[in-house]
Amino acid sequence: MQRYFLDQPFKEDGIAMITGEDEKHITRVMRMREGEEICCVSEGVGHIATILRFDEDGVTVQDTGNTSSMSELPVQVTLACGLPKGDKLELIAQKGTELGMTGIIPFQAERSIVKWDEKKGDKKTARLRKIAKEAAEQSHRTVIPEISEPLTFKEILKQAKSFDVCLFADEEEAKEGTSKRIAVRLEKVYHGQTILVLFGPEGGLSRSEAEILRDAGFLPISLGPRILRTETAPLYVLSAMSYEFE
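The structure assignment produced for this chain is given below.
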């Protein structure tokens, strides 16, 4: 069943309108007809709705009163990613959404080769948000992950204060002892908590960044004996979260 996120919630009479790109997808790509059912996500709930009619203003749907099953992770995981090269951030946005992340916060790390172009920044962020939305629909999510504008390292530290648990992947620090294995760290994480996991760009985090993170209350985690690419590490962590909590 096709899934769409509503811009406006259902009215009291159970009626809602689908417009924009989603309307085009329903009419031109899927070529749907009146009476067909789709899943319309509103306020974190997937509602099974029937297509009533096609108008110039959009597609009118009626809530049937049935809902889809919940598919969100029991914990809210936000990824803070040092700006990587190429389209790696797009891959993280897509696959991270499929694996249940809550959001992405890109940041400028010491070893980030890429510099965020302010002139093209809005277009890049808009593209990432579109990728996350499409991935959320495809993977039957009821939440579209939030894609943040890039922050500085200092801004990340300020944001971290609002999370219940803060972790960072660091291949050097995490090699010391088994207490830093991700499985051990997750033993003290509970359902409903908010988690921020920070990853460096290509080349990892600098020693000064790692030390600052530790002083700020971040806990280092090991992602196994192999060195993972910057776009692979976040997906590894999300998979571990799914294994642990679902």
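Interim note for the steering committee: The mean pLDDT is 92. The CA atoms of residues 25 and 31 lie 8 Å apart.
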